[in-house]
Design a protein that fits this description.
The structure holds two protein chains of two kinds.
Chain A: E1 8-17, E2 20-30, E3 35-39, H1 46-54, E4 61-66, E5 69-70, E6 81-84, H2 96-100, H3 102-105, H4 111-124, H5 140-152, E7 158-162, H6 170-187, E8 191-195, H7 198-204, E9 207-212, E10 215-220, H8 222-227, H9 232-237, E11 242-252, E12 255-260, E13 265-270, E14 281-285, E15 291-292, E16 298-307, E17 311-317, E18 323-329, E19 339-343, E20 350-353
Parallel strand pairs in A: 3-8, 3-9, 6-7, 7-8
Antiparallel strand pairs in A: 1-2, 1-4, 4-5, 9-10, 11-12, 11-14, 12-13, 14-20, 15-19, 16-17, 16-19, 17-18
Chain B: H1 2-33, H2 43-49, H3 52-85, H4 88-99, H5 106-117, H6 122-130, H7 143-167, H8 171-179, H9 184-213, H10 216-222, H11 229-238, H12 243-267
Helix pairs in contact in B: 1-12, 2-12, 3-7, 3-9, 5-7, 5-10, 7-9, 7-10, 8-9, 9-12, 11-12
Chain lengths: 356, 277
C-alpha cells in the first residue's frame, strides 16, 4: 500500500570528511509511505544519512534518488523534503503561524491559501488557535508539534525527523510517540526517523535500520531484528541480551554446535546465517528464555534481584565467572545469594557472529 | 542570600565611591554652573538655544553622527558576516585586524589621516594619477575629512556587536529555511537579517552616541569649518572661559542623548534580548 510521498533510494552513497568516514557506501531502499527508523549510538552515521537526504551535505560518492529523480547534487531547497530538527530550529522572531507558513510563503502562494493550510496543519498537530502566539511562549512539546506542522504543511515527498523527541520528558515522549504513529497511519508519508532509543523505534516503525560506525548493520522488521540479529552488536542494541563467548565446533543446515566455556558444555543452537569456519561467534540467550529448573544443566548463584513490576530480573553468577540475566514473571520469590539451576530450550538460542 | 548581597555591595563599593567622589560630584558642580548666569538661572540656556551659531553646530553634529553611523554599519555588516564564517587562523587574523586600531592612540590615527588626506597627500596623488580628478580634492578641514576619520575610528564599535549578534544565529535556522524551499535571498531577508537586527541597532546606537561627543578627530580633521558640539563646548572653556555656556551646552547634549536612548528603548525592546530563546 503506497501512501503520500515518494520512495527513496541510496545507491552506494557515501560521505567522508577528510579522512573520517561518516557514512560507508550504503545501499538503502525506502518504499513510498514507509516509516523507517535509523537506530544507533551517537556517531553511527544516522544524522549524516539524514543530512544527505535533506541536501544539507553532499555525498562524496554514489547517488541518491527520490522517486524517479536523481537528487545527488540537487540543492536542499529544490528537494521538497520536510525536516524536523532535534532542536526544532523554529524561527524565533516569528509567530507560530509564520513559522508553519514559512515554506508556503517562500513558494509565493496567495495569503488566503497559506492561512487555510497553516490552520489545517495546526489542527493536525492539535494546536488550532495557537497561530498568533510567539514561539518563545510555547512549551517544548508544543514547539515540537509546531516543527512537525511546519515540515508537513509543504506536503513533502519525504519527512525526516532527527531525534525530534530528545528534549521532551519521558511521559510526554510516550504521548508524542503514539501521536506520531497515529499521524503516520492516517497519512502514510514516507518517513525517516532518527533515534537512539530502541523503545521508540519499536513503537513507531515499519522497519528499523541499526547503524554503527557509519554503516547499516542490519535492516528489517523489528521482530526479525530481535529474533535473528545479524551480529552481536545488533543483538545487544535491540532488547536485553546475554552474549557468551563461544567456539564453533561444527555446523549443518542452519544449526551450529558450539563449545561454550561459560556453560561448561557444548550447545546446539540455531544459526540463521551460514558462518565461515574460524569466524568469531557468540551465543545469544535472551533473558526471558532462561528459566529456573531444578533439573537444569547449569548451576548459578543469584547476585541480584530486580523487581520490574510484572517481571522480575535476576542476575546470576556462573561458576566460571560470567554473569547472566534472567527474566521471569513475578511470582516465585528467589532470595539473593540462593544457589539455583537454570535451563533453556535450544530453539530459543541464537549463534551470532561477533561484530567487527 | 543576605550574605551574598552584602558581599556584592562590598565588592562594588570602592568603584562606586571613586566614581561618586571624582566623577558624579564634579559633574553635578559643572552642570550647576549652567544655572549661574548673571541675569537669572536660565540665561545661559537661552543664550545658547537662541544663537544661530549654536543651532548650526548642533545640526551639523547630528548630521555627522547620522552619516557616520550609517557608513560604519554599511561597512561593518559584511566584515562581521565574514568573521562569522571564518575559522582558525583566518578568523584570528581578521579579528585582530578589527581590534588592532584599538591599540593605537586615536590621536596617532587621526594625524595619520591628516597625512593621507592632505592636498598633496597620497590619496590625492593617487586619484590624480588615475585621472579621476585634475585638481586635488579638498579632503581635509571640512566635513569629508571628519566623516572619513570618524568612520574609521568608530568602525570596530559597530563590527563587534554585529559579529556577536550574527554569531548567535543558529546555523540550523538557515538550513531549515533552505530545506523549506527558500531561495538564498529569501533566507537572508526573512531569517538572517531580522536575527542580526539586535546587533545592527546595538552597534548603531553605540556609534551614534560616541559620534555626538567625539572631539579629537573632528577637531583635527574638520577644524573650524566643521564645528561639532564638543568642539564648541571646548572653545567656550578654553577660548572664552565661559564655563556657564559650556555647562549649558553639555546639559543640552546630555538631554538629547537621553531622549534618543529613551526612544530607541521604546521602539526596540533590546533589553529583553529581542529574539532570545
Amino acid at each position: 500500500m503506497s501512501g503520500i510521498g515518494l520512495p527513496l533510494r541510496f545507491d552506494g552513497a557515501t560521505k567522508r570528511y577528510d579522512e573520517m568516514v561518516a557514512l560507508q557506501p550504503t545501499d538503502l531502499s525506502v518504499e513510498a509511505g514507509e516509516f523507517l527508523t535509523l537506530l544507533g549510538p551517537s556517531g553511527s552515521g544516522k544524522t549524516t544519512l539524514l543530512n544527505l537526504i535533506a541536501g544539507y551535505a553532499e555525498p562524496s560518492g554514489g547517488s541518491l534518488w527520490i522517486g524517479s529523480r536523481d537528487v545527488t547534487r540537487l540543492a536542499a531547497r529544490h528537494r521538497n523534503i520536510g525536516m524536523v530538527f532535534q532542536s526544532y530550529a523554529l524561527f524565533p522572531h516569528m509567530t507560530v503561524a509564520e513559522n508553519v507558513g514559512y515554506g508556503l510563503a517562500v513558494r509565493r502562494l496567495p495569503g488566503a491559501e497559506i492561512a487555510r493550510r497553516v490552520e489545517a496543519a495546526l489542527q493536525l498537530v492539535e494546536l488550532a488557535g495557537y497561530g498568533a502566539r510567539p514561539i518563545q511562549n510555547l512549551s517544548g512539546g508544543q514547539q515540537q508539534r509546531v516543527a512537525l506542522a511546519r515540515a508537513l504543511v509543504i506536503e513533502p515527498d519525504v519527512l525526516l525527523m532527527d531525534e525530534p523527541l530528545g528534549a521532551l520528558d519521558r511521559q510526554l515522549r510516550r504521548n508524542v510517540q503514539l501521536e506520531l504513529r497515529r499521524l503516520h497511519e492516517e497519512h502514510r508519508r514516507t518517513t525517516l526517523y532518527v533515534t537512539h532509543d530502541q523503545e521508540e523505534a519499536l513503537i513507531l516503525s515499519d522497519r528499523v535500520a541499526v547503524m554503527r560506525n557509519g554503516r547499516i548493520e542490519q535492516i528489517g522488521k523489528v521482530a526479525d531484528l530481535y529474533a535473528n540479529p545479524a551480529n552481536s552488536f545488533v543483538a545487544s542494541f535491540i532488547g536485553e541480551s546475554n552474549l557468551l563467548d563461544a567456539k564453533l565446533v561444527s555446523q549443518e543446515a542452519g544449526r551450529a554446535l558450539l563449545e561454550v566455556p561459560a556453560l561448561r558444555q557444548q550447545v546446539a543452537a540455531p544459526s540463521p546465517s551460514p558462518l565461515a569456519s574460524g569466524q568469531a561467534v557468540r551465543l545469544l540467550i535472551r533473558p526471558e528464555h532462561l528459566f529456573l529448573d531444578d533439573a537444569g544443566p547449569v548451576q548459578a548463584t543469584v547476585t541480584e534481584v530486580v523487581y520490574l513490576g510484572e517481571l522480575t530480573a535476576l542476575r546470576l553468577q556462573l561458576p566460571a565467572g560470567e554473569q547472566l540475566w534472567l527474566r521471569q514473571l513475578t511470582g516465585r520469590t528467589v532470595a539473593r545469594g540462593a544457589t539455583i539451576r537454570v535451563n533453556w530450550q535450544d530453539e530459543h538460542l541464537r549463534v551470532v557472529p561477533e561484530a567487527r | 542570600m543576605r550574605g551574598d548581597r552584602l558581599n556584592a555591595l562590598l565588592l562594588i563599593l570602592p568603584a562606586t565611591a571613586f566614581l561618586l567622589l571624582w566623577f558624579v560630584v564634579p559633574l553635578c558642580r559643572l552642570l550647576a554652573l549652567a544655572f549661574t548666569g548673571e541675569a537669572g538661572g536660565f540665561e545661559s540656556l537661552w543664550t545658547l538655544l537662541s544663537s544661530n551659531v549654536y543651532q548650526r553646530v548642533l545640526g551639523n553634529t547630528m548630521i555627522v553622527a547620522v552619516i557616520v553611523t550609517l557608513l560604519t554599519l554599511v561597512l561593518a555588516w559584511p566584515v562581521a558576516y565574514v568573521l562569522t564564517r571564518l575559522k582558525g587562523i583566518g578568523f584570528m587574523l581578521m579579528l585582530y585586524g578589527v581590534l588592532f586600531p584599538f591599540w593605537i592612540s586615536v590621536l596617532v590615527r587621526t594625524f595619520s589621516w591628516m597625512l593621507l588626506l592632505e592636498r598633496n597627500g597620497p590619496i590625492n596623488r593617487f586619484l590624480m594619477g588615475l585621472g579621476v580628478t585634475d585638481q586635488p580634492l579638498a579632503l581635509l578641514f571640512n566635513e569629508t575629512g571628519v566623516l572619513i576619520g570618524m568612520t574609521h575610528v568608530l568602525l570596530p564599535y559597530a563590527v563587534l556587536p554585529l559579529f556577536s549578534a550574527m554569531n548567535r544565529i543558529d546555523r540550523r535556522l538557515l538550513q531549515a529555511s533552505d530545506g523549506l524551499g527558500a531561495a538564498p535571498l529569501d533566507t537572508f531577508r526573512r531569517v538572517y537579517l531580522p536575527l542580526s537586527l539586535p546587533g545592527l541597532f546595538g552597534g548603531g546606537t553605540f556609534v551614534f552616541l560616541l559620534c555626538l561627543g567625539f572631539f579629537i578627530t573632528p577637531a583635527l580633521l574638520g577644524g573650524a569649518n566643521a564645528m561639532t558640539l564638543s568642539m564648541l563646548i571646548s572653545s567656550f572653556v578654553t577660548d572664552r572661559l565661559a564655563w556657564s555656556l559650556a555647562a549649558a551646552g553639555s546639559i543640552i547634549l546630555l538631554a538629547i542623548v537621553l531622549v534618543l536612548m529613551g526612544l530607541a528603548m521604546r521602539l526596540l525592546p533590546l533589553d529583553k534580548g529581542m529574539f532570545a530563546k
